[in-house]
Amino acid sequence: MLVTIVSVAVATSVDNEIEHLLDYVRQSDVVFIRNGTEHKASAAAEHMQKKRQHFKDQIRTAEDFIRLTATKSLLSNQPYLVRTRDGNTEECSTWLQNELNRFRKSKK
Predict the structure, then answer these.
(1) pTM above 0.85, yes or no
(2) Is 16 domain-assigned?
């Protein structure tokens, strides 16, 4: 019984982290670059959600979510990028991992 309760708590925590990351993407003001094409935040979040469903059996942690849905294109193998308002570009996976770290620290 205790193992089941702990497993449910861990799953809930992971789901909360992933939902936070998806909300963070949706509400961001960055430009997402996928396969060389720019996308709005809402489209990027929708794309990540579709990939989440595709990889649902492999996603056990928020890091798995980032690695499988926000790192690179399955078609071209090109990394996903984000461009911030100030014009800086970074890999989407790094951008999301930084937010995940911040979110976890805020929960302590």
Answers:
(1) yes
(2) no
